[in-house]
Inverse folding.
């Protein structure tokens, strides 16, 4: 089978097989994984998602550093290929999606039956493969942790990225007033099209001033929930917009700058600060994560949320996918489409 194998840490934007690339050349001779337990399922991967965490992991900058060599990749969707003798709820041909710590950048992956989610009829497999990490992160953050309510104000930084787009949509499903911050007119237009009430171009607008003008025009006091996958100065500026009792959701640091949240200000303002490492829920509160993903799949099947995929690449073009993520070209998700018939699309 084809697989993208990380042989050393390095720059993922260099083409696989080149001397400077951390990846071995993609070939079809990687061994197909065997069923590892009676309840194991082998899935033929149709599409797998590229997340910022994978970008960091390949460079050795993520909080978890698996031993080399390994096949990267996290959330994916595909079709059941084989099942162990103890599997009761799935059979070959079923359409499923899931997530893994490693391994989805390959034609086949092994998962336990209880880690797989049936993709509802009518839902696109590529969209389902983009759902778990990005939408799961936003759903657990906004619904479970911040308990976002109708009429509250949600400020989403980095709103045109994978998690940002999902946060805007989930915010609207919850009935919130959503302020979305991104860079560039194309991204702002898309965010308006999915329901953002106010959009701000952080490359040229004064974020605080623009948000305050909007809030004043709406008769609103400030921001109740800050969703922050960016960090840096933008985060620090956003604190000026927060209401008493606001929730701060720490999602990531795409800017490369980890912000400082002063404890004395959090005390006076009664702010609640939530660190959100989505993958750790599988270890500590798996039921919460499972219920969250099932609700998201239901929303997807009902059309309450949509998955925006702006870039699709073949496995051998994975370096282009990483480059699109690094250069912030994507509006929504960047996907790797598996199989010999896959075609790249910018």
């Amino acid at each position: 089978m084809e697989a993208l194998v990380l042989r050393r840490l390095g720059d993922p934007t260099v083409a696989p097989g080149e001397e400077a690339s951390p990846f071995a050349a993609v070939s079809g001779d990687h061994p197909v994984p065997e069923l590892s337990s009676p309840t194991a399922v082998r899935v033929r991967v149709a599409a797998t998602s590229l997340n910022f965490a994978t970008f960091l992991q390949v460079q050795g900058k993520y909080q978890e550093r698996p031993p080399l060599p390994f096949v990267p990749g996290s959330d994916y969707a595909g079709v059941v290929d084989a099942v162990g003798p103890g599997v009761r709820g799935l059979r070959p041909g079923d359409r499923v999606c899931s997530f893994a710590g490693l391994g989805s950048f390959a034609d086949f992956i092994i998962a336990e039956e209880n880690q797989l989610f049936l993709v509802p009829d009518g839902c696109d497999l590529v969209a389902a493969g983009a759902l778990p990490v990005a939408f799961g992160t936003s759903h657990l953050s906004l619904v479970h942790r911040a308990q976002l309510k109708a009429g509250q104000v949600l400020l989403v930084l980095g709103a045109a990225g994978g998690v940002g787009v999902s946060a805007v949509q989930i915010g609207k499903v919850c009935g919130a007033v959503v302020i979305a911050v991104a860079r560039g007119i194309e991204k702002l237009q898309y965010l308006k099209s999915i329901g953002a009430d106010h959009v701000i171009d952080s490359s040229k607008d004064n974020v605080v001033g623009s948000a305050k003008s909007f809030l004043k025009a709406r008769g609103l006091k400030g921001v109740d929930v800050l969703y922050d996958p960016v960090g840096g100065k933008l985060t620090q500026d956003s604190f000026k917009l927060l209401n008493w009792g606001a929730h701060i959701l720490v999602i990531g640091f795409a800017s490369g700058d980890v912000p400082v949240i002063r404890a004395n200000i959090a005390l006076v303002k009664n702010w609640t600060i939530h660190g959100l490492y989505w993958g750790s829920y599988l270890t500590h509160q798996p039921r919460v994560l499972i219920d969250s993903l099932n609700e998201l799949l239901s929303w997807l099947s009902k059309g309450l949320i949509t998955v925006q995929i702006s870039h699709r690449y073949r496995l051998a073009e994975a370096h282009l996918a990483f480059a699109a993520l690094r250069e912030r070209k994507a509006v929504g998700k960047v996907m790797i489409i598996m199989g010999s018939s896959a075609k790249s699309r910018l």
User: Anything to note?
Assistant: The chain has two domains: 1-118+308-345, 134-278. The chain is about 30% helix and 20% strand.
